[in-house]
Amino acid sequence: MSSDEDLFAQQMADVTPVEVKPRVDLKTGVGKSTPGEKRRRQAAVSSEEKPTDNYLTANHIPPVEPLAVLAFQREGVQHGVYRKLKRGNYELEATIDLHNMTVEQARVELFDFIHQCLEYDVRTALVTHGKGDRNLDNPGILKSCTALWLKEVTEVIAFHSAQPRHGGVGSVYVMLKKSKAAKEQNSKNYRPD
């Protein structure tokens, strides 16, 4: 009687190994950028002036508790679209971190960021504002400001506090209106012939 190894070798005698090709050609990915990276690079080196008509409220900000969930949806935003945003299921095309900024710095940076997103047809972004005071007794100042400011930008159609993997209640997903060019392209793509 033969051992298990002998029996296995006998059964496998006529088997030829399958040639395995690598799944990803790492050489072709080197130096290539995603569309989001290209837009951010263009925005960073753009010689155009930043918008100077910042209309975001500078004072009298209603306080928001540090652990509060931020949620906002303009009329007309489909519930399924909002639910997908809330779950963090959209690709984040741009991000900004407002940590360690003064209220005025954050006001200017967020205003510029939103307008750059609009300029480059960014639909979903992540704004990290933090929760506020570490002892959680005081309202989060930048969180409170962000909640108000995003509502003041008419092109912001919805926002919701992020999932834990993206910063939880210290960050917010933002959805922006589709640009006119993007709407026309979408219409062309889905127009019945």
TrEMBL record:
Q: Which UniProt keywords are given for this protein, alphabetically ordered?
A: Endonuclease, Hydrolase, Nuclease
Report the residue ranges that make up the Smr domain in this protein: 96-177
* Superkingdom of the source species: Bacteria
Region Disordered, as annotated, extends over: 23-59
The residues that cross the membrane are: none
Among its keywords, does the record have Nuclease?
Answer: yes
Its EC number is: 3.1.-.-
User: Known Pfam families for this protein?
Assistant: Smr (PF01713)
What is its EC class?
hydrolase
Question: What GO MF annotations does this protein's record show?
Answer: endonuclease activity; hydrolase activity
UniProt-listed InterPro entries: Endonuc_SmrA, Smr_dom, Smr_dom_sf
What name has this protein been given in UniProt? DNA endonuclease SmrA
Q: Which organism is it from?
A: Sinobacterium norvegicum
